[in-house]
Amino acid sequence: MKRITIGVLIVAALFMGAAFVVALTPPKLDPDDLRNIAGANVQNGEKVFWASGCAGCHAAPGATGDDRLVLAGGLGLDSHYGTFHAPNISPDKEHGIGDWSFYEFANAMKKGIGRHGENLYPSLPYTSYVRMNNQDIRDLHAFLMTLPESSAPSKPHDITFPFNIRLSVSFWKLLYFDSESPAQLENAAPDVLRGQYLVEGPAHCGECHTPRNLFGGLKYDHWLEGGPNPEGGDGIVPDITPGSGDIGDWTASEIADYLETGFTPDYDTVGGSMVEVQKNISHLSRADLEAIGAYLKAIPAN
Ligand code: HEC
Ligand code: HEC
């Protein structure tokens, strides 16, 4: 009798365990959603590449000039959980992503899922890239495949238990991974909507300019209000809402100037982690930079 009860308990436990694992298995993109996109436009892919700052993390540390197009990885990203290392995403088939299908690539970008179905860490900012449209992802993929190969092996991450278990990211995703737009601006002018797409999607401005909770989730009700530097240290990331004491009185064009040149209206130069962002974003057209400015004037003030 007792033996049967224990047997039943074990079976029930196994069943619950299996249900638990299924519930935590990260869901992938619906392949049907990717069927109707047009052929790849490599020129647009290059623009998306600069807007989304891939080189900032995936170029070898210290690379300059054309070497920034060799996405060999290796940069260490410090966090409260340890150090993440950006992997090699060059078209090398063995050490990079040259062998990945477009579907696999799109799942990494929009679902945070790796090639073998595993969770990726949100140090790859898929929490923003999820808002990118599939055509841009297609074009970006095609552009990446034109870049030089690197045979540098990716470095393992150096993070603490339990965060080194990728399944733990499933809990995090359930709580903090949301594709909804953080600012409700439905009836806004087309340039504001274009700026919204760039800021909330590819350019991932909120990943640094929005404060995070204890578990690293973005506080969407404080969208772009600034806060402590997510990479630790005692740096501060400024408030860039219209209520900001610093840029509240900049015009949309002055914001665009800053992104284009790296100079503030007072001729201060851009600093900190914004230097890398400015270098990448400055490749965008003036119209896109003005659109970012227009969006930053249209969102609610802090
Ligand atoms: C803020 C830094 C950062 C930026 C910006 C960034 N990545 Fe990453 N990326 C990472 C890190 C760190 C990982 C490793 C994540 C992991 O191991 O779970 C990663 C992983 C990846 C992977 C999975 C690689 C693999 O071997 O599993 C792909 C693909 C990728 N990134 C592509 C991109 C592309 C394309 C862009 C630009 C649109 C980009 N990343 C922008 C940091 C970044
Ligand atoms: C990797 C983190 C990071 C990302 C991503 C980022 N920023 Fe910044 N940003 C900063 C930091 C840090 C500063 C402070 C720079 C300084 O001290 O000069 C800053 C400064 C600024 C300023 C000037 C504010 C001031 O008070 O001087 C503006 C405007 C700005 N960012 C806009 C943006 C926009 C728009 C985006 C997206 C295209 C963006 N940032 C993405 C980290 C980031």
TrEMBL record:
Question: Which terms are listed as keywords in the entry?
Answer: Heme, Iron, Metal-binding, Signal
What Pfam family does this protein match (any one)? Cytochrom_C
Coiled coil regions in record = none
**Which ranges carry the Cytochrome c domain?**
40-148, 190-300
Signal peptide range in chain numbering: 1-23
* Name of the protein described by the UniProt record: Mono/diheme cytochrome c family protein
Q: Which organism is it from?
A: Martelella mangrovi
